[in-house]
């Protein structure tokens, strides 16, 4: 099962649309967003590209209006998992957390509870293994801190990650 992983979109609709189109072209079966959509309306825009794909998200520190966020998520059929969650899809246990406390990301990775830990917040790509757990931060979709508009493709069968950019070819890890 191929999953698109994205974070820190911060209202960059053009980048979100481009990355979603890459996901669609590659045949992703689900999308995981690690928080900081910023505007709840961004979920509706992503849903337009993916009318049939499951989309899961956690809150980020810039997703302030939780009431409106939950309402728009319901309208867009996006499953909001709260601050952090265990998501079981594709035979894998995936921990999702925005990443505002780095120590929690590390604790999740070392806990043995997850096959994969997905986080965002730092706006920096992070692909590594900790005690057999894949740790994945897809970087930032908005490009506001690094000028790279990145997301990731995660193969849940092999746990291989491919980094994709809104404006360039992919990089295999």
SSE order and pairing:
Blueprint: E1 2-6, H1 13-26, E2 30-33, H2 41-49, E3 54-57, H3 66-76, E4 78-80, E5 84-89, E6 92-97, H4 102-110, E7 116-118, E8 125-130, E9 133-138, E10 150-155, E11 160-165, E12 168-172
Parallel strand pairs: 1-2, 2-3, 3-4, 6-7, 7-9
Antiparallel strand pairs: 1-10, 5-6, 8-9, 10-11, 11-12
Helix pairs in contact: 1-2, 2-3
Give the structure's gist in a few sentences.
Helix content is 25%, strand content 35%.
Describe this structure in words.
The protein is of the alpha/beta class and 173 residues long. It has a single domain, classed as Metallo-dependent phosphatases (Purple Acid Phosphatase, chain A, domain 2), CATH 3.60.21.10. The chain is built from four helices and twelve strands. The strands form two sheets. The chain has a seven-stranded mixed sheet with strand order 4-3-2-1-10-11-12. A five-stranded mixed sheet has the order 5-6-7-9-8, with helices on one face. Strand 1, helix 1 (13-26) and strand 2 form a beta-alpha-beta unit. The longest helix is centred in the first third of the chain and has 14 residues, at 13-26. The protein is globular, with a radius of gyration of 14 Å. Mean pLDDT is 93; it is low at 169-173.
């Amino acid at each position: 099962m191929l999953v698109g992983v994205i974070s820190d979109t911060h209202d960059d609709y053009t980048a979100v649309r481009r990355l979603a189109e890459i996901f669609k072209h590659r045949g992703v079966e689900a999308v995981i967003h690690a928080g900081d959509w910023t505007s709840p309306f961004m979920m509706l825009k992503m849903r337009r590209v993916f009318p049939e794909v499951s989309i899961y998200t956690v809150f980020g520190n810039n997703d302030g209006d939780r009431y409106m966020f939950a309402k728009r998520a319901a309208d867009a059929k996006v499953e909001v998992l709260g601050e952090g969650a265990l998501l079981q899809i594709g035979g894998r246990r995936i921990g999702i957390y925005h990443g505002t406390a780095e120590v929690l990301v590390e604790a999740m990775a070392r806990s043995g509870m997850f096959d994969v830990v997905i986080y965002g917040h730092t706006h920096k790509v992070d692909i590594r293994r900790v005690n057999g757990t894949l740790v994945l931060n897809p970087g930032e979709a908005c490009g506001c801190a690094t000028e790279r508009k990145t997301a990731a493709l995660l193969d849940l069968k092999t746990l291989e990650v491919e980094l994709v950019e809104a404006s360039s070819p992919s990089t295999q890890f």
